[in-house]
Batch of 2 targets.
Target 1
Amino acid sequence: MESLRFERQVRFFGEEGQRKIRNTKPLVIGAGGIGSHVIQQLAFLGVGALHIIDPDVLEKTNANRLIGVNDADQAGKSKAAIAERLVRRINPNIDVTAEQQDVLELIESRDQPFGTDWVFSCVDDDGVRLKLLQEVAGGPTLIDCATEVVPREEGLPNFGGRICVADGTDGCPYCRDLYDEQEIRHSLADADELQDEAERYGVAPEELEDSGPSVVTLNGIVASLACNEFMAAVAGIRKPKPILEYRGNYGIVAASQDPLPDSCLYCDDWRTGA
Ligand SMILES: [Zn+2]
């Protein structure tokens, strides 16, 4: 089976493209709703190695969307371990490592580069996204993935998602205005600051960190956009689009036409190669 495994995609982008994909070893941070889709697709595409990091464990409410989960999996099982099992079942030749680790702690304790050209940011918190961007800027290409479901006063919510491919040439999620400043503040605040803010707004502190709705279909669209741009770039099909946005209420995917902002706290040096 091995020699024929990739035959249908080699028809698309050639043996050389497949070899380039095999030579990648992407790092996927977040193995939840979006990350588990990304991991599955990278495994099927035929990357040579995969490094997976996720701090969380399985909860019963994840069963509607976590790719690779079995009905027999108990709550409390590490999501990183579930993702590792998924990869091994798809292709045991992939060199996969999975760690259950807090992303901010990982960033703070890290004393060497990530050792990869590709980082997929599939976390669900803009504070963690920003820290990750800060860490990656100037190095590997970052593909930042997010879905969004925004309640409306009447009727069903607005829904969609987006990816941002940041490689130093076209800005980053920060200057492209994709992060929520308030969410960043909440995420990076300590317990006292969170308590102060909660009192100011008259809500419980945990409500400031509340997770939104999540559905397998939306996660799958965003993950597919991310992996498709990865494939296009690595296999030499075309340059990746810096931002692709899925607007669920209209049923369209659009590439951002916004001009590149003049300067950015996070990617100026990356842009100039400094
Ligand atoms: Zn930027």
Target 2
Amino acid sequence: MSKRETDKSALKKALDSDWPQIQKHLIEKAAEEAGQDNPHEPYWTTDEDGTRVLNFSPDSWWLKHFDERVVLLDLPGVAVMNTQHWHVGAAVSTIHDAYNMGRAESGGECFAEDDILAHIERFARGQFVAIRTSGPGAGHAVGMATTMRTTRPPTAPILPWIEAIGDLRLAAHEPSGDWLYGAEMAVRHMYRRKGIGTGLYRVRFDLVRSLNLRGWYAVGMLMGYKDHADAMDVVEYGERVIAGEIKDPTVTMQMNRGFRAVSVATAYDDEPQAGDAGVLIVWENPDYVEGGDTG
Ligand SMILES: CC(C)(COP(=O)(O)OP(=O)(O)OC[C@H]1O[C@@H](n2cnc3c(N)ncnc32)[C@H](O)[C@@H]1OP(=O)(O)O)[C@@H](O)C(=O)NCCC(=O)NCCS
């Protein structure tokens, strides 16, 4: 084995197995310097305007609270699980990364940390993250997905995104809704094309089955439209994606995961890359039992 290969495998070993210890040491040292008694517990501070702020280190929470039994899907170096409150910061920055948003551009109609916490309160089983399980950044989300339940079927007229979800805290979630509605999904650029998105779909198909829902639908944004905007309008682009003539990085990926692409939805959400449009995608649960227990 060449020296370079030996160095590489030593580095890999250190990142996979020794990193948690290194992380722990760094967190404890930082807490000591900040005068915080227990580095692994969150603590509250009060801002100048009286706002109470919860402070915690996601790294620290990862080291203290990760339990393999809550992992829904194990991928190489990444685990998919239901979102915990220590994931919210990384879940929001994953959305920013996936949509090429600077922090300054966020706000408006984009989930913030408090919104993700509200989603967990409302429908914990429908919130997902893909987190790194080894190396620097272990415990941080690199992919995320937000869903809610609704009684509104996919055959009803498509509502713009914010109306469909009610508000950024998923006010439209109906605990006994018989359809799952996909409100958001994002994977960081650096982690794409590694099966993380597919994993986030798998756990949601499992959720639909285990809750005995009729199915799942969403509007997949036509994220590749920006490369075709000079040649055609967004409706033509969407129809050609549905017909399989053009590959869209988001909608074709969703069609390849088992969704039926139904129709183009214009003015769905403010997303310049997609000409604000998407495609209604539907998955009917083949195991649905009429009148069965719906979780
Ligand atoms: C859409 C999105 C979530 C997909 O995430 P992802 O993690 O890249 O998805 P996957 O890796 O599972 O699949 C993407 C493609 O990579 C391929 N792939 C998966 N693992 C691979 C690997 N190890 N090597 C090469 N290709 C791979 C998949 O087969 C798939 O291609 P296909 O559809 O032609 O089969 C991501 O591109 C994204 O965040 N986009 C921006 C935000 C967005 O559009 N969100 C959805 C709004 S509706």
